[in-house]
Amino acid sequence: MAPRKKAAPNAVYQLKVTLKRTRPPIWRRLHVRSDTRLSALHEIIQTAMGWWNCHLHQFTIGGEEYGAPDLDEWFAVRDEQRVSLHQLPLPAKARFSYQYDFGDDWAHEIVVEKILPPDPIVTYPICLTGKRACPPEDVGGTWGYTEFLDNMSDPHHGEHESMREWNGRKFDSEAFNLDTVNARLQSFRRPTLGGGAERSGQRGKVVARIKRPVAARPLPARGRRVGLGGCQ
Fold it and tell me: Measured between alpha carbons, how far is 216 from 49 in angstroms, rounded to an integer?
């Protein structure tokens, strides 16, 4: 069998990220640069899905596991900061996995739907579309999330008030705001494509052919710390 071709560093990957074992499914469709490092893709997924980035994670691609070796003392993983998408055997239609929070075990399937030439007037990454809200952190995985939704939807449930107090706000499982997601993704955008180093935090002008995103509040400060003790 001929070896799979790797994409050029100036291509664009169309990725569909689906949170597995959720019905109806929770998913996002993204365009990301092919020179995006896995460490940056992790943060892009966190932002697009709505996670708070306060647990460990890892990618599994072609039988190899990638993560943050300085944080993950339990598993031998390759350094995600040293690998970009275009360096991996990920042709169109390829699938790989992203696991977040080894306790709740949020497994995401990622499909490379297309590999496209870059649009010169678009800054990447962008979210094209998606469906449904991200589950709350530390809710107990898919089983705990199902129980949480049952409790929240029934004002007469014995744990309804305690669940509302625990979550801290109302929760709409069908909510998804594309403008808010793209506003939060602005911090990852770079205006040109090339082989340069990934620099998370550099802002680029939003010129994608989608509605200009509205201002969005940043994620809670507690969500920017990674550890084993949950989101505190």
Answer: 15
Q: What is the pLDDT of residues 129-155, one digit of tens each?
A: 999 999 999 999 999 999 999 888 766
In this prediction, residue 232 carries a pLDDT of 58
212 vs 11: CA distance, rounded Å: 24
CA pair distance 161, 52, nearest whole angstrom = 24
- Rounded CA separation 165/186 (Å): 32
In terms of Cβ atoms closer than 10 Å to its own Cβ (0-12, 13-18, 19+), residue 209 is exposed
Q: How does 162-173 read in b/e, with b if 16+ C-beta sit within 10 Å?
A: ebeeeeeeebeb
Q: Which H or E element spans position 98?
A: strand 95-100
Other CB atoms within a 10 A radius of the CB of residue 130 amount to 22
* Cα distance between residue 170 and residue 98, in whole Å: 28
| Structural domains in the chain plus CATH codes | 12-132+176-215 (3.10.290.30), 135-174 (no CATH)
32 forms beta bridges with 13
What is the spatial distance between Cα 90 and Cα 176, in angstroms, rounded to a whole number?
28
Query: What is the number of other CB atoms lying within 10 angstroms of the CB of residue 214?
Result: 10
Q: Is the torsion defined by CA of 144, 146, 149, 155 positive or negative?
A: negative
The upper half-sphere exposure of residue 146, i.e. CA atoms within 13 Å in the direction of its Cβ, equals 7
